[in-house]
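Here is one chain, start to finish.
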Amino acid sequence: MPQKYLSIQDAMQQGSGTVSIRGWVHRERGSNKLKFVVLRDSSNTIQCVFERSNFEKEWDDIDHLQVETSITMTGEIKKDARAPSGYEVQVKKFEIIGKSENYPISKDLSPEFLLDNRHLWLRSTRMQAILKIRSTIFAAIHEYFRSVGFYEYHSPIFQAVQAEGGSTLFHVDYFGKKDVFLAQTWQLYAEPAIFSLEKIYTISPSFRAERSKTSRHLTEYWHAEMEMAWSTFKEIQDQGESLIKHVMKKVLENHEKDLKVLERDPAKLLPTVKKPFVRMTYTDALKVLKDKCKIRVQWGKDLRTIEEEELTKLYDVPVIVTHYPKKVKAFYMVEDPKNPEVVEGCDFLAPESHGEIIGGSQREHDLEKLKARLVEQGEDPKNYEFYLDTRRYGSVPHGGFGLGVERIIKWICGLDNIKDAIPFPRTMERYKP
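Its structure:
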């Protein structure tokens, strides 16, 4: 019968008796009589004690165990307050599965070295904590949308039209055809589906060829997007707020230990769950920036990173800025019926200077206005015939938003750089490993 192994966490919950565990050497120390090995797996770490008197024949192998050696072992577990995690295993038998010699990751290495060795840095307790929280965030997004009646829907990654600006398109050689791009967003291929399913969402990679080296930008990132028929602009904002609250609640419920590893104070995240988000128009945001931050922004200019950061420093919950000038937003955003100079679009700005995490809008459903906006932005409406058909045949008010998943991971985990929010970051200068 195959050996039954427990996770380290399950072994500690058992608390006493014989256990079999397996994992990787996290730390090791000892003398010529005793060897102390801190073993790690995905669930926890535990101190394991090897006594030379029990392993005379194998002592040379034990004495030369190095960090990241994979090993299985069986022994007696007991509580020990002196041990790092409060338990200790007295090892009775073991097997080295994979040797590790001169593991290159150690303390005080540069961020670039760790990025160059990302395939190994993923094993660190820090990256492990981030990846666990990331997994919960993805699950919470799925859980939220399904709980409020949305269908999961998938759009193509290869696309023939741009939606967020031609300057940030990744062109691909598609069997010799030139006008094919990697998706910036699912939106233009998602809107046709709302006339069938009404409420849809996805989590999918998006690609932006932005020549940016900031701590907030990736060229490949995961995009949680939704579209809904019969919506109002307020409902789009409400859905975004409810989604973020749900995600935050799930992380706080399940990741106390991981937040501690990241030195992230949960008290800074609680207001997002407990309090309503701040909502203000773009025009009001300019007034707040002028009165409280002594920053003057000319009306009609988009908010820059520094202005978003200063605005969010005033609040402990996300700020939803609405009704941006039409000229700084995408062609598909509907004009405000009370003021055609602005659109019913919104950005959700995270506290603590983490910037935009959601961008959304009510969509323009008038065919002629949509065609005129395309022309204004230098696009040929003929290239958008499939999209314009959605306005020709039974158009309805509708809207949606996109959430940058790595942006919300960066905020929740309190990361300095978005590169740590994804296993293998892709940026303007980094495409490997």
